[in-house]
Structure formats: C-alpha cells, structure tokens
Write a structure and sequence with these properties.
37% of the residues lie in helices and 24% in strands. 41% of the residues are buried. The chain is globular, with a radius of gyration of 18 Å. It is of the alpha/beta class. The protein has one domain (2-240): P-loop containing nucleotide triphosphate hydrolases (Rossmann fold). Bound molecules: adenosine-5'-triphosphate. Adenosine-5'-triphosphate binds next to β2 and α1. Residues 2-235 form the ABC transporter domain. Involved in beta-(1-->2)glucan export. Transmembrane domains (TMD) form a pore in the inner membrane and the ATP-binding domain (NBD) is responsible for energy generation.
C-alpha cells in the first residue's frame, strides 16, 4: 500500500534521515522504534509531504507515485498524518473539527456515514459532539485528532506519539481503538515512545537510529531481539523474552 524508498532529509548540515526505506500493507500496523532525536517525527512529516526532503526519494501509495505531490494532494491520494501534539482546532467543537477533516474531495461524499463510523470507534466523541475541543481531556483530544484524520477517508494513517501524556487506562483504550481502525482496512504507521505497547499491537517494526533504518522485522522478532530489548524495552524481562 505505502512504499518508501531512499528518503533523505537534512536540516542545514544535519542529516536527519538517510536513505530510509519502508513499507506498510493494507490493514497492517507498522511501528517505528527510535530514541529521542532519531528522526521519527521527521520521517512521518517527510512521508506526508510537510517538510522538504533531499532529491531522490520514491514514495508510492497503492501503486501511485506520490513523491512530488504537495501535502494536500498527498491527503487526497489517501494518506493522513496525526501530528504529535494533536493539531486540532481548540476553539471549534468536536463536530466542526470532524467536518474539517472531511474537506478532501475523496472524503466529501460519504461525510455523514464516515462521521458515524468515527463515532462508533470513539463513542465519547459522539457524546461530546457539541463540546469545544480545547475543553476536552488529553485523551479525548487525541481521539478527536485521530477521528479527524479518519474523516479524510485514508488508506494509510501516520500517527506521531499518540499515547503521549495519556493515563495508562487511556493508553489501553487508544491502542484497542487503533486495532479496530486496522480491522477497517486502514494501514497504520505508528511512532511511539511506548515501545512495549506499540510492539504489542504492531505486525512489524523498523528500528531508526540517527536517521538510518538499522533493523526491521516482525513485532515478535523485534521483541525477542536482545539489542531491541536493551534499547527500547528496558532490559531483558525473562518472562517476556520469548516471542508471544
Ligand atoms: N526544524 C528543524 N530544524 C533543525 N533541526 C531539526 C528540526 N526538526 C528536527 N530537527 C533535528 O532533527 C533530528 C531528528 O528530529 P525528530 O524530531 O525527527 O526526532 P524524533 O525521533 O521524532 O525525536 P523525539 O522522539 O525526541 O520526538 C533531531 O536532532 C532534531 O533536533
């Protein structure tokens, strides 16, 4: 579904991404593991076309080359980004935020049906449809940000640290919802500090260090890799060292 090859990005002299290649299938959850500053946010922004990249990248979505498209046309072709910090319109209601999410042409026709779908994924948003977004809790705002991205009818959803700042119970709820989004056939590319949780729901993952992909494999393979355990899973817990 999403295929990325040779993606590089520099901020001045600092090369934040170097020849990154990855792919995400339909209905697949793929996670990116990486330390602070590894380039995870830059990677999602580069795929979504909101930062300028170095020449030579190849990005395709459903077989269509989207490498040189501007960000709004990338959304039109079926890729939506949920940025870190959520990026919702705080002064607008939940319903108005969702309506704005349906602005791409590909999403306008089925707006009401899709809103119903979003409301069944996130019942709390239905209850709070008339509430001003900034008055909602952090977890509710995160759900709204994801709901709004889903309103664009994406084939691929890029999520940047969706669990940041949420309570453990809210994190569980969020991850359960991401599973249901996947069941609807949407592919998810997930950046998470919470590697434990993201590997629990992911099918596959990539390890990003200093802008370079240094490892990839199934979630089970990564969970049992000693280097991954040391760097991202807080050591080698004997009970979970084997894949599950
Ligand atoms: N606009 C910018 N200008 C200059 N340098 C930047 C800019 N954005 C990011 N960087 C640098 O690029 C590198 C990668 O940043 P990025 O935010 O992509 O990392 P990250 O893996 O998402 O980190 P974190 O987990 O801490 O959010 C870092 O060294 C960062 O300081």
């Amino acid at each position: 579904m999403l295929e990325v090859k040779n993606l590089s990005l520099a901020y001045g002299l600092h090369r934040a991404l170097d020849g990154v290649a990855l792919d995400v299938g339909r209905g697949e959850i793929v996670t990116i593991l990486g330390a602070n500053g590894a380039g995870k946010t830059s990677l999602l922004k580069a795929i979504a076309g909101v930062v300028r990249t170095l020449p030579g990248k190849q990005v395709s979505l459903g077989g269509r080359d989207i490498s040189v498209l501007p960000a709004h046309e990338i959304v039109e072709s079926g890729l939506a980004l949920v940025p870190e910090g959520r990026g919702i319109f705080g002064d607008l209601t939940v319903k108005e935020n969702l309506l704005l999410g349906a602005n791409p042409k590909r999403a306008r026709d089925g707006e009401a049906a899709r809103r119903d779908q979003v409301f069944s994924l996130f019942p709390r948003l239905r209850e709070r449809a008339a509430q001003i977004a900034r008055t909602m809790s952090g977890g509710e705002q995160q759900m709204l940000a994801i709901g709004r991205a889903l309103m664009s009818n994406p084939d691929i959803l890029l999520l940047d640290e969706p669990s940041l700042g949420l309570s453990p119970a809210m994190v569980q709820e969020l991850f359960a919802t991401l599973r249901r989004v996947r069941e609807a056939g949407v592919g998810l590319l997930l950046v998470e500090q919470n590697a434990q949780e993201s590997l629990r729901i992911a099918d596959r993952g990539y390890v990003l260090e200093n802008g370079i992909i240094v490892g990839h494999g199934t979630a089970d393979h990564l969970k049992s890799d000693p280097a991954v355990q040391r760097a991202y899973l807080g050591g080698v817990p004997p009970a979970t060292a084997s894949s599950s």
